[in-house]
Amino acid sequence: MKNSRRTFASCCSLVWAAFLAAFLGAGCANKEEAAPASNSLEVRSAWARPADSGATSAVYFVLGNDGQSSDTLTGVESSGLADATGMHVSTQHNGMMHMSEVTSLPVPGDDSVAFRPLGAHVMLTGLQRPLNVGDSLSITLRFISGRSVEVRAGVRQP
Amino acid sequence: MRLAIIAVASLVLVGCSGQLERGVVIQDADPAPALAFTAANGERFNLASEKGKVVLVYFGYTHCPDVCPTTLSDWARAKRALGADTTNLRFVFVSMDPDRDTPALTQSYAKQFDPSFVGVTGTEMELEALKKRWSIAAYPEGDPRSGIYTVAHPARTFVVDRQGRLRVLFEPGVSGEELAKDLRKLL
Question: Which of A14, A24, A100, B176 is deepest in the core (most CB within 10 A)?
Fold first, then answer.
């Protein structure tokens, strides 16, 4: 799926969505101040791992929802950056690490969700250029409301 | 499943070791299973030849976007924190993705985190034998034919002590600083 937005099926996503809403929201102490009039989505603390061309990287950030109404993250896309771009979550089960695709992620109003190491991340597979420390990249988050948010992330070591 | 049983038993015993803060100590540890591969530069890595050193082993894959680079970054941070105390310390990354990871790619990947890190892999047959010896699992998730798939792999870092015994396990998420503190006690 080259340079494409992933339009996610809703099937099987609800359980993940509920799990992730609890999992991701639990550690977000820096909740955005409520700003009901703006109803804005804001990304902060975005960064990406360095990786060679053809390899895989991950993008992490905190997604805040300043509004009072919730929205749902349904896809992520990149342009000229990777062969495939998608949301995943790392999970540990019976001593094994697994990764699962996330198809739908609620972002409650007046709250935030965190994409962080060993948890949810945007996975960039088949990088079309190397990502070196100091570089920057851009991805776009798509929401069920029709809104979109551009994420600009610097490439750095964790 | 010998290691799995040991791991579960050791989780019960972790509070009794009284030595390490984050490492799970395996009581009555057995000699580590064999692990020997030829790296891309032609150098042979043989765990059996590393007695006298503490060896950290992680089984992952280079296309791993999250857990493997997090672990290796924590290793690198621990090594920096230990400073000059790393002469008798080895960090070994073993790729369990023979379809995509060549010895050269695996070595290059490991050395991105620290030039001293060892990155090795083997053929599918060699890795199958390795999995049996270490009582671990690793397998593709998704469709390998598509070229876009992930690999389920052991979560823990295995630590072989200076006597060559499989002695300690570290769960993912142990920071470099925490790791350094525990490694200092093992060195």
Answer: A24
**Burial (0-12, 13-18, 19+ Cβ within 10 Å), B107:** buried
0.90 surpassed by pTM = no
Using CA atoms, how far apart are residues A124 and A114, in angstroms rounded to an integer?
18
Q: Is residue A34 over pLDDT 80?
A: no
Whether the CA torsion A72, A139, B70, B178 is positive or negative: it is negative
Tell me what the mean pLDDT of segment A23-52 comes to. Answer: 65
- Token pair in block for residue B95: 């790729």
- Written as six digits, the tokens of A67 are 């509004």
* Secondary structure class of A104 (helix, strand, coil): coil
Number of H helices, E strands in chain A: 1, 10
Assign A89 a pLDDT band (cuts: 50, 70, 90).
Answer: very high
Length in residues, chain B? 187
Using alpha carbons, select from B76, B173, B179 the residue that is nearest to residue B93: B76
Collect all residues of chain B within an 8 Å Cβ-Cβ radius of residue A92. Answer: 155, 172
Dihedral angle computed from the Cα positions of residues B24, B29, B34 and B37, in that order, rounded to the nearest 10 degrees: 30
Q: What is the pLDDT of residues B28-66, one digit of tens each?
A: 999 999 999 998 888 899 999 999 999 999 999 999 999
User: Quick one: which of B95, B96, B123, B122 has its CA closest to B108?
Assistant: B95
The complex scores an ipTM of 0.85
**CB contacts, 8 Å: B4 with chain A:** 95
With cut-offs at 50, 70 and 90, classify the pLDDT of residue B12. Answer: very low
Residue with tokens 């999250």: B66
What are the distances in angstroms from CA B95 to CA B58, B60, B182?
Answer: 8, 5, 25
DSSP result, A71-83: EEEEEEE-SSSEE
Distance from CA of A68 to the nearest CA of B (A): 32
Q: List all residues 6 or more positions away from B165 whose beta carbon is below 8 Å from its beta carbon.
A: B26, B29, B30, B31, B32
